[in-house]
Amino acid sequence: MSYFQHYALAFMALHSHLLSRVTGIDSTESQTKVLHLNKNDARCSDDRHFYINTTKKNNLSCSKTTENLHSLDVLEISSKRLLAAFPLDPVRENSVRTVKNCVFSVAQPTPLKGPLKVAAVSKEVLEDILDWDVSAAETDDFIHFLSGGKLLPGSIPLAHRYGGHQFGVWAGQLGDGRAHLLGEYINRHGERWEIQLKGSGKTPYSRNGDGRAVIRSSVREFLCSEVMHYLGIPTSRAASLIVSNEVVWRDQFYNGHVKKEKGAIVARVAKSWFRIGSLEILASFGEIDLLRKLLNFVIDEHFPSVHASESDKYLDFFSRVVTDTANLIALWMSVGFAHGVCNTDNFSLLSITIDYGPFGFMESYNPNFVPNTSDDEGRYKIGNQANTGMYNLDKLREALNPVLDTSQQLSAMQILKGYPDIYNKRFQELFKSKLGFLGEDAGDAYLIAYLLKLMEDTQADFTMTFRLLSEISVQQLQDQSIPQEFWALQDLASHKLFSDWVPMYLLRLKRNASDSDKERRKRMKRINPRYILRNWMAESAVRKAERSDFSEVHLLQRVLSAPFQKQTEAEEAGYASRPPSWAEDLRVSCSS
Known about the structure:
- The chain is of the alpha+beta class and 592 residues long.
- Helices cover 38% and strands 12% of the residues.
- It contains 20 helices and 14 strands.
- The strands form five sheets. Strands 3, 8, 9, 10, 11 and 12 form a six-stranded antiparallel β-sheet that branches. A two-stranded parallel ribbon has the order 1-4.
- A hairpin with a 2-residue loop joins strand 6 and strand 7.
- The chain is globular.
């Protein structure tokens, strides 16, 4: 058996067995004010976001105008539904403490100290999700509302209580240590979105933190949550980035070098911010009635395929989360995304990507790529994300045990054992599409594994290898006539066995039914991005932003909103070129 056959078998084993031992898976400085606004009610129903489970609540009327708001005068958000659903922390102060028997604590945001600046907004989030015309971002109400300085009627700011396993160890109570949920908004499509501020001050869950976020991490989160959406990956969204001159002290690499940075707040939206740790904390503290109540709420609101009256509804819920998590991580892998901190408190129950910290998009293909310098052991390296997903799902299973009978507990273990096959199937589907394959072929997994090994050996760029395979013609590959500008393929072609892989790949393409080279390239360019948020691109934007120059933040917004389309300004900026030499020394940590 050849070296590459050994590698291919090992690769397929990695993505087929994963963890078979399921049972052994280890502006103003004043106090927050209230804006007194007029109210508006009914919304229309039309959920266009394919990756988010639609709500079961479809009894909303369609009387709301389709015109976007130019001010916040008629905006209605509310915390009532969440307050009615769960018991509230009886202590109404932001002192750090152990909290029990609740899901939320009331916590007032601490406004950023002025002067404040709206550094960036997402036009799509404002207009398509929140029904605001982008011009609303120019108003004082906007900047004060989304920097924690003022509240709208109906908004009671909440901090969520949750726990989590961090780097494989139970960390106990965690919670929203610097985030405030302002309330829910129902838009003209009938979609219900939760608006949350990140970096808006201390809460009962701040532990030793100051409740703030800095420009450096806020720019990265704002940009990445948006590019992930445009890449077609389930994610929370970013509405705005507001910056200040407020001094925030950070030891970026935990090496004793504390430095002065500037504070910022990102306004984020999601259908729900509940995560695996939301259930873990309740199970850990023995709050079983509240665990059941939270589960029923999540199922009723976000899992329409799960019948609330069924005795096995918690099993059905678990099965859905297992499938959706496998799908999410396969999607991450398909674009070379490493989350960086895959703790259970960062894994959404809706299987969307949340909590962007020390993430990274892999450049040179390397299964051991670790974006987070704080991850000394490489626990969350890109090649281990699928295994980490299974570990986290096992912690979810353990949190569900108190509401399952003995038979159901055994069934949950069997459901989890199906995770590797679900993940592997989705992984193969995605990578087959990335290579332009149609239909089924027994040798596809081998061809994928062979290519990845060539890429690993030559340190070929992950994104551009697949993209340039989408752009090069079959004739050029046959002749092995690779243009100079196809730099990633030039690197790949330096491998002595590249000439063995190409004929096998071309033969497989010939087996595509009713296909042409033109159609193959068009199809592949729709799934293989030309642009991603490379670490050096984000760092370049951050360095300028720290000097109050947000031009590159805006450039990246424009480019990354169409990552599959070749763009002149992106090419001129070098976003599809070899990364600059200084990029090799960049590091990202959990400090934010």
